[in-house]
Amino acid sequence: MHLMEGELPTSMSGSCGACINGKLYVFGGYDDKGYSNRLYFVNLRARDGTYVWEKITNFEGQPPTPRDKLSCWVYEDRLIYFGGYGCRRHNELQDCFDVHDASWEEQIFWGWHNDVHVFDTKTQNWLQPEIKGGVPPQPRAAHTCAVLGNKGYIFGGRVLQTRMNDLHYLNLDTWTWSGRIPINGENPKHRSWHTLTAIADDTLFLFGGLSADNTPLSDGWIHNVITNCWKQLTHLPKTKPRLWHTACLGKENEVMVFGGSKDDLLSLDTGHCNDLLIFQTQPYSLLRSCLDCIGKNAIILESQISLLPPKLLQQVLKKITFWTAANHREEQRAQKEEKEKKCQWISSD
């Protein structure tokens, strides 16, 4: 846990966070006062370990209208935002906005967006690029996005009562849309509140979300952008559905999923999740496998570990600490289960 100081963002849901050069930027979201289009950042590489938030107010240009459940591509020191659900005034209505509801007295409209806005973190400028061609995706929110090369991909999301399973990309150099990408073979289910993670130069990993029939999903899919094929992973645990979670890529190309919910939040919420799910998308390196093996068998190899080169020894000691703690937690869990079984046996007897 780190202490937070400075101009902290207010407690919001549906905000959009993204990292550039060690700085975390948080935009938009929703609270009891309505939708936001404020932008904050914090330096995660602070030397003293204290995180100081700043609200960005000295920008130039026009920021997006207030919204939540949008997505962000990070490309060349720029934050490129797409879509989301929010509000606009009557004089702000455009083709990029699909109206859901309205307050005629206040002339405020709520709905879904498919516009693109760019924040340049170097110049502190907002701009709305001119889309040069292609068919843009339908307005949506609670979709997901990922960057491969100079292409920003989006998948799924919701508009009105419809959840989608379409895949598009925006060329982030030429500002042209691909149109809906034709898929060879099977498609993932329609969904929202899922994640899409780039795991290689030509590969995306899709996980979880909420289906069109409001079922929390635990499926995982790999998409190859060269063959335009989806492949479902068959070994994922079906008892770990997730929606509105976060996902990121680890050092060994494992996808780390944290938080979110296991329920249909529109009708039920028994509590959010705080466990970390790790999906290994390719074999670990030989070095990683050897370090794990030594860490698990430190007692057997005790007399030889000190002979390792200093740099390698540091990595081994970290692994030994990790596996010692992991084994301790597993022993505690097993003892707790055994104790609970004995209590149940005594009470039933």
UniProtKB/TrEMBL annotation:
Keywords recorded for this protein, A-Z: Kelch repeat, Repeat
Matching Gene3D superfamilies: Kelch-type beta propeller
Protein name per UniProt: Kelch domain-containing protein 1 isoform X5
Species, as recorded: Vicugna pacos
Lineage: Eukaryota, Metazoa, Chordata, Craniata, Vertebrata
